[in-house]
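Q: Is it fine to ask for two folds in a single conversation?
A: Yes, each is treated on its own. Send the first.
Q: Here.
A: Result:
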Amino acid sequence: MSSSYEKFKKRRILSSYFSVVLSIFLVLFLLGFLGLFVLNSTKLTDNFKEKFAMTVFFKNEANDSVIKAFNEELKSAHFVKTFAYVDKETAAKTHMADIGEDYMTFLGENPLQNSFDIHPKAAYIQNDEIRKIAERLAKNEMVSDVYYDKAFIDLVNKNIDMISFYILCISGFLAVVSILLINSSMRLSIYSNRFIIKTMQMVGATKSFIRKPFIWRSIQLGIIGSLLAVAALVGVLFYANDNLNEVDLLDDPLMTGLVLAGVVVVGILITWISTFFATQRFLNLRTDDLY
C-alpha cells in the first residue's frame, strides 16, 4: 500500500515538474523568437526595400564607351546596392516571353532601349533620396529617361512603419503575459507544497531555510525549460537562415548569442522571483488560511 502510494506521489511530482518545464519552455521560446525577430527585423525590411529597382534608359546613340563609363560610375556610387545592364535585345526577348507574342515581326525593329536596372541601398529608399538620385543620373546627356515607382516607395515605408509599431506593441504585451504565465505556473507548484512549508515552519525551520530548496528546484526547472527553448530557437534560426538565402541571419553571432543568453537569464530570474514571493506568501499565512 505504501509502495503504490509512493509511486503515485512520484508520478504526481514528475507530472507537476513536466507541466512547469513545458510552460517555461513555451513562454521563453515565444519571448526568444520575438527577440530574434526584432533583432533581425532591420535586415528583413532592408532586404525587402532593396528589391525596389529604378531603371535608367539610354538613347540609341549611346555607344559602348558611354555604357562602360556609366557602368564604372555605378560601381563607385555610394547609393547603389546592386545593378545590372540589360541590352535591348535581351529586353526584347524577355518582353516577348512575358506576353507570349513576337511583336518584332510586325514592328520590323526593336523599339526598346539599352538600360540599367539599379537597386539602391535600403537607406536611400525614400522619395526625396530617390528623386535626388534620379536627377543626378538624368544629367547624363545619353540618358533618355529614369523610371521608378513613386507609389511603391510610399507604400513600403508606410507599411513598414505600421508593422514595426504593431510588432512593438504585441511584443510588449506578450512579454507581460509570458511573465504572468511563468509566475502562475510557479505559484501553482508551490501551492501543492503549502502544507509541507507550514509544517517545516511549525517545527522551527527559518524562512530562508524553507525557501532555499524550493527556489533551487525552481531555478533548475527554469534552466531546463530555458535550455530547451534555446535549442528550439537555434533550430528555427538555422532553418530560417537556410531558407532565406538573401538574408544572413547569422552574420551577427554576438547579438544572437546575447538574445539566447537573455532567454536563459530571464528563465532563471522569473522562476527565482516567482518562487520567492510564492513561498513567502504561504509562510506568512496562518494555518487555517491554508485550507
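Q: Second one now.
A: Result:
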Amino acid sequence: MIEARGLGHRYTKDTWVFRDVDVTAHEGRVLAVLGPNGRGKSTLLRALAGLLDPTEGTVTASAPVAYVPQSHSAAFAYPVADMVLMGRSRQLKAYAVPGRRDREQAARAMEQVGIVHMADRSYAELSGGEQQMVLIARALAAQCRVMVLDEPVSALDLRNQARVLTILQDLAAGGMGIALTTHHPDHALHLADDAVLVLGPDDVRTGPAAQLLDARALSELYGLPVTTARVDGPRGPRTVVVPDLGPGRDPSAAAPRIQQAGASPAAKETAA
C-alpha cells in the first residue's frame, strides 16, 4: 500500500538522516519503526505518509493515507466531536458541509476508540493522551486504507495503550495497512508483522518483526544489554523485552515505617 525505494533525506548539505531505505507497508499488516531518539524515525514516517518530500528516492501510495501525529494543537477550541468530524473532509466536495452519514461515521469512530463521553468537551482542554485518542478517532473517521501513526501510545496510560494496540490489531486484521513508530519493542513484538530498525544514516534494517527484533539486534539498536523472555499473559504466552536498568533496590531492605494519619500522640509513642 506504501512502497519506498532508495529513500534518503537530509536537513543539511552534509548530514543525512537516512539513506538508501527500501520499505513497504502491506495491506493487512503492521509495520513498526524503532530506533533511539533523534535517528529519524518520525522523518521516515512522514515521508511514508507523503507529508515530506525526501531528498532522494521515491514513495508510492496505492491507497489514501491517514496520518496521526505524536502531538497536535488546534488553532481554535473545537469540540471533540467536531475534531473527529474533520476526518470526513476528504469525503466531501468543495464547500460541502458534513451530512448525516458523516456524523454517523464520526460517532462510530469515537465509540470504537472509547471517547464518546468526550464529544462535547473542548479539544484544547484535554490532556495529551486524550488528544491522541481524538486524533486516532479522526483518522478512523476518514476511512482510509492505510494509517500512519507517530508514537500512538506515547502519552497514554496502560489501559488506553492496550485499547489502542487492540484497535490497530483489529484494523490490520480487517485489511488496513498500519505503519507506526514506537519506543516499545514489546509493543512491536506483540503487534507488528514487519519492522524497521534505524541504527544510523547508513544502517537501516528491514525485515519480518519476529526475526529482526531479537535480543542481539535490540541491544545494538539501543546501546545497552537487552534480553527477551517468554511470559504467560492473560491471553497466552508473549515475548517481552527486558533492558539492563542497572542494580535495583534491595527487596530485603527494611521498608520505611508508615505513620497513620491522625494517630494520637499516645498511639505514636506506642508504635515507636
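Q: Anything structural to flag on that second result?
A: Two points. The two ends are 69 Å apart (CA to CA). Residues 267-272 have pLDDT under 50 and may be disordered.
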